[in-house]
Amino acid sequence: DFLFFWGAVFLVTTTLVAFLKKENQELIPAKEETKGITDTYRLLFSIIKMPAVLTFCLLILTSKVGFSAADAVTGLKLVEEGVPKEHLALLAVPMVPLQIILPLIISKYTAGPQPLNTFYKAMPYRLLLGLEFAFLVWWAPKVKHEGGFPLYYYAVVVLSYALHQITLYSMYVAIMAFNAKVSDPLIGGTYMTLLNTVSNLGGNWPSTVALWLVDPLTVKECRGAQGHHTCATAAASEV
C-alpha cells in the first residue's frame, strides 16, 4: 500500500509537470559542446589512467572492506536472533532527522583544503562499531525473554546505529567533497561521475562478498540427528 500510494503520487506529479510546465523561451542557453558515447568513454579511460586517479580508485575500492560484514549482516543476524523486523524498521525512523542534519554539520569540516582528513578520522571509529554490532548480536539471546526484548536493549541498538550514521556520513561527505574538489571543471560532470561510481562500487562489492561468505563461514551443528552432523552444506542442513 505504501509503495502503491507513492507510486501513484509520483506518476501524477511527473505527468502534471510534463503537461503544464513550459520551457522559458526568452533565455537561449549558450551552445554546449557535447561528446558522443565513444568520446566520453575515451575521456574516462584517459582520466582513470592518470597515476593519482588510479591510486585513489584502488584505495576507495578497498577502504570499506573492514566494515562491510558489520554493515551488511548485522540487521539480518539480529532478525535471526529474534528481533522483530517491524521493530528494526521503526528504529530507522529516529535516524531520518540525523541523516538530514549530519551532512550540514560535516560539510563545515570538509570545506577546507583537505576534506579527506574527516574520512581518515572517522574510519577507526567505524571499525570499532563493527565490534559493537557483533556484541549486539551476541547479546540479543542473552536479554531475550518471553515478551520480546527489553527497552534498554533497543536503546543501545538505536545509540549504536546513531553513532554508526555519524561515522558513515563523515566518510561519505568527505569523499564527495574530495571528488568535487579534484574534478576538472571543464569535464566536471564526467570526472565526478567516474569517481563517485568507483566510490559506490567500493562500498557495494565488499557487502556482496560478505553476504556470500556468511553461509560457508557459519559453523552449524544439527541437533536430534543420529550421529554427528556438522551441517556444513545446504544439503546437509536440509537433511
Automatic annotation (TrEMBL):
- Supply the SUPFAM superfamilies for this chain: MFS general substrate transporter
Task: Tell me the Gene3D superfamilies matching this sequence.
Answer: MFS general substrate transporter like domains
Return the InterPro entries for the record.
AcetylCoA_trans_1-like, AmpG_permease/AT-1, MFS_trans_sf
Which cellular component terms (GO) are annotated to the entry? membrane
Q: What is the lineage of its organism?
A: Eukaryota, Metazoa, Chordata, Craniata, Vertebrata
Subcellular location, in the record's words?
A: Membrane
**Superkingdom in the source lineage:** Eukaryota
Look up and give the membrane topology term. Multi-pass membrane protein
Major localization class: membrane
MF (Gene Ontology):
acetyl-CoA transmembrane transporter activity
> Which UniProt keywords are given for this protein, alphabetically ordered?
Membrane, Transmembrane, Transmembrane helix
* TM segment ranges: 6-22, 43-67, 87-111, 123-140, 152-175
What is the name attached to this protein's record? ACATN protein
Gene Ontology biological process terms from the UniProt entry: acetyl-CoA transmembrane transport
